[in-house]
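Why does residue order matter? Because the sequence determines the fold. Keep that principle in mind as you read this record.
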Amino acid sequence: MGPRDRDDRDPFDDIFRELSRMMNDMMGDDVGVHVQGNDAGFGDDVHITTQQDDERVYVVADLPGVQKDAIDIKCDGRTLTVAAATDHREYEERLRLPVRVDEHSATATFKNGILEVIFERADSSANIDLD
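Structure:
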């Protein structure tokens, strides 16, 4: 193995990526839970999970040290963006939702550092009347 063949990747990245994949495989597909990894955005400080049932999608984010008025939430029906700032850091996390949602139906609460956002699921298809 010469200098050109050196692998500069962090060996722990592969381990954590595999653990995250296994958790999502174990929990995500069967019970509608998705655990967001810490690849970017808020990093280790924030944990975001999604859960869904037949009618709604629930997103819960742990935002330690963030004040309510420093949070900005946006959704385009498929991706939820949560941005926040503290005195020390600015955060932005983009979360791909498990299904399409009606972004206009969203309700959000923030209490004790926990952000909860609830969406109604969007109809995946529309009825077409035949004349």
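The beta strands are 33-35, 48-52, 56-62, 71-75, 79-85, 90-96, 101-111, 114-121.
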